[in-house]
Automatic annotation (TrEMBL):
Organism placement in taxonomy: unclassified sequences, metagenomes, ecological metagenomes
The name this protein goes by in its record: Phage-like element PBSX protein XkdF domain-containing protein
Species this protein is from: marine sediment metagenome
Domain Phage-like element PBSX protein XkdF: 16-102
InterPro entries to which the protein is assigned, alphabetical: XkdF
Amino acid sequence: MEEYIGFIQGYIATTAIDSQGDQLTPQVIEKFADDLTKNPQKRTLYFNHDMTQPMGYVTEFYVETKGEWKGLFAKVGIFKSRLDLWAKIQSGELTGFSFGARVLGMERKMSHNKVECNFTVDLTNIDWDTLKDTLTKMGAKVDVTVRKAVDAPTSLAITANVATIAGLIFQIYT
């Protein structure tokens, strides 16, 4: 394991509405913490979702609850090899955490007042349950297709009552 130049800490996920208008449920926060416990490889942080640019590692984390609000608080060690990013953190240029996903393709069908979309999504630091839960909370019906060979879903079938959801989802995850 690489040594750290320093540490940052803060909430890496909460049930509050984020800057993109997304909101995670308390169950997703708990699952996220459980996933980090069971899969330490998912604790690596990447700069701007670029899997070729690891920048740090979640060294400690816990779920905090305040009434109906939940948050996943983490301490992250920034790798010594990322002095460039440590300087940006220290100057205030880098200030937050983000979970990433990338839409690889999308098919959209309109029928009456419903939009049906099939997405093929490549996820980086977010799991399928989190994405499904977020989309469901936005009012979409989501079915996940699982590729058994690697036990990882490869596509989402989304049916929404509002035509703008499909465009919004495409915009958020591209």
